[in-house]
Structure formats: structure tokens, C-alpha cells
Amino acid sequence: MRQIKVDLIEERVAQAVIDANTVLPKDVHGALQTARERETHPAARRFLQIMLENADIACRDRMALCQDCGMVVAHVKLGQEVQLIGGSLETAINRGISTGYQRGYLRKSVVRDPLARINTGDNTPAIVHISLVAGDVLQITLMPKGAGSENMGQLAMLKPSAGVEGVKEFILQVVRAAAGNPCPPVIVGVGIGGNMEKAALLAKHALLREVGRPNESPDLAELETEMLTRINASGIGVMGIGGNNTALAVNIETYPTHIACLPVAVNLGCHSTRRIKLEF
Amino acid sequence: MKTIRAPLELEDIRSLQVGDEVLVEGTIYAARDQAHQRMAEAIRAGRELPFDLRGQIIYYVGPCPAPPGRVIGSAGPTTSGRMDAYAPLLIARGLRVMIGKGSRNQEVKKAMRENGAVYLLTVGGAGAYLAERITAAEVIAYPELGPEALYRLEVRDFPCIVAIDAEGHDIYERPKE
Fold first, then answer.
1. According to the CATH classification, is domain A2-20+65-145 in 3.40.50?
2. Sorting pLDDT into bands at 50, 70 and 90, what band is B176?
3. Looking at the predicted complex, does its ipTM rise above 0.90?
């Protein structure tokens, strides 16, 4: 059985949260460049230029891309043949986050209790999703997710009779209601199927997929393209000021569901959607 | 491109129209949710505010900690709508300009029309870029709030666009293509 010390996880997470907050993923950077080339609205083009310069400055000076360094969502893929030694996985991830957010001058935005609202002071705890898989792999994908975009997500438990047209209408409705708030151009993560929490989780997972990589199912890939075109025709535009770039991508994930259910969740990622994958 | 600097008079505000791109220069104040709540409480209780609002500019931001050798950490705008509950009270006390991101409600727009104020949008998520345009930062009240403290900032070439002007024209409500 493969053994991995949790100390190693802690150390790598500490560095990874700094990297994730300061270096824009290549695919997102590329998509912003493409958006700038095709933008027709002059002020929106200047805003896109500023977003790209922001990414350069953040990377060069190791400054946070955005002052909202998010609450960290950790997606863990843990092989059944891996034994973690020296302590708990969640504790190691949280310790790494605590160290990284201090060391990287990142903003601490987590409150201990949603009602009393006292800051924990070190941006912990993370939200950890673990899936147990075959083999001896350990993969941790970290996503520091800001609240501007997270607050604009929605879930609908549609009737099956609503069909694909109902799903399309709901996606458009969420994007229109969000308008400039989630810092467009956004990445639209969509989860269809499962149940209430599964749809929400699928929508979050959809944001982890690279911009420009379509769903493997041709039907869903077509739906993604159609929705991207329609969202970009909405005229919301960069930061809501108008123009032809409201979204960089629409990523859809699906799962089997109950005969009586058609859950749809939409989770929005901002123009600086941050994520980093660690492999052990 | 127009440049604006506080203190601003009514005529300065009226000259700004929705969609105008402007650069902000000079002194602005940084405040977000909790600093607004405290200022609103002070106004309602008849207590003095940490600074005179007349003619001033408030930027909705909760910055990152300043790395060594920097005056401030990453400092982009936060969603303005969360300050809607407090903004009319501040506008009635003379606040002329708000800088943030996202839409505002009808009460805020009404207060802006009645008192002469504008709402500027800057680039959300451009925290590192905007921090380079902040040349000085000082906490002037509520230091215990950390990133939510009230700051006095000095800015130069701080890029904004008029999102809602003093006549209530709203960039988010313009007909879309």
C-alpha cells in the first residue's frame, strides 16, 4: 500500500494557494486574450486589457489577482490503495491554507459562524469534497472561490416536462439576473441531473474543466456552444457595461436522475477563475 | 478622458454622464460592509463621523494585507449592492461619488438624483492592477475590522466608468444589443 505523509500535503497546499491566487490559469488567460480580440465595445475592450495587465502584474509581483482570495474549495481524488499517515487529511489541507494565506499576504475572508460572523483569521476551513477511486492516486484540486461570483449561483428543481428548453431558459435567467455582479466575462458551470446537492456539485466541478475543452458527449458539447453564443448575445458584457463578451465558456456536466426530477444548478466563475491541481 | 478629484461640487457631478470614462486622482476613502454599518449607526445616533463626507469619494473595497515594500495589497472593487442599505444616508450627508461594481437599487438612485451624486464602476477582479494606482493608504477608523477598516487612500490614474449619473441614467439598464 502506498503511503503518503500528510505533512507533505500541508506543505504543498501552502505553496499552491499562493500560486493559485497569483497566477491566472493559462486557459483562462488565453480566453481573455481571445475575448479582447473579438470585443466590439471600446470601454469593454479597455477593461479586458486591464484584466490581462492585472494577470501580468499579479504574476510578476506575486500579488493576489483579486483582493477576494476566496474560500478554498478542495476537490480530492483519493485512491483506495493510498494510506495517509501522520494525521488527518482535512487538517493538513487547512493547515496548508492557513500558512499559505499568511505567507502570501492573501485576504482572509472566512467567518467562523454564518450568523455571528467572526473572521477565523486564517481563511480556514476549506470546503473539502473527497471522492474515493481505484488505484493509488492522490489528486487535490484547489479552487479559491470569490463571493462576487459565488453569490450569483442558483439551483432549480425543474419538472421533467420542462425539458432541455426549460434548462436553457433557467441558465439564461441566472446569467441575466447576475448581470455585472459576478465580474463577467464569466465561466458558466452547469450541473444537470442527480438530486439537489449532486446538481450543485456538478456545477462546481464543471468550473474545473479547462476553458475550450468541450463536453465529451457531442449533444452536450453542442448545447454548450449554443448557450455560449446566446449568453454572449445578451449584451451584458464585460463587468456589465455591454459588448459581446459575457462568458468565456459554458461547461455542462450531467448525472443520472430520478424519473420525477430535473435538477439544474448554475455556478458562476469570474473572469479570473482560479484553480490549481496537485498530484502526489 | 476626464479626471476627477475630491472635493467635488454639484456642477462637477452634473457634468458626468453615464458611460463616460474617467480617471480618479487624489484622496478617496475605502469602506465596505461593516465600516458602512458603523458610519450609518453614527449618523443615526448623531455622533461625528471619522471624516467629513461633503464632496468626497468612497471606494467599496476590502484590500489584501500589504506585502513588504507596498502601501497596500490587491485592492479591486467589491459588489456595491451590499452597501445599498447605507448609501442613501451617506449621500444625504454630502457624499458625491461611490466606486464599486454591480448594480444599485432604486433608493440609492433616488438619493443620487436628489442630492447630486454619481456611481462609478471600476474593473472587478483587477486587484493587482488597481493596487499599483494607490500611492498611499492609512487606516483612519475601525482598525479592529481588518480588511473592513476605514482607509484614506491616495490614488492616481484610477480608471472608472460612470455607471449611474446624477440624473439616474444607468449603464446596466441601457438597451442591450
1. no
2. low
3. yes
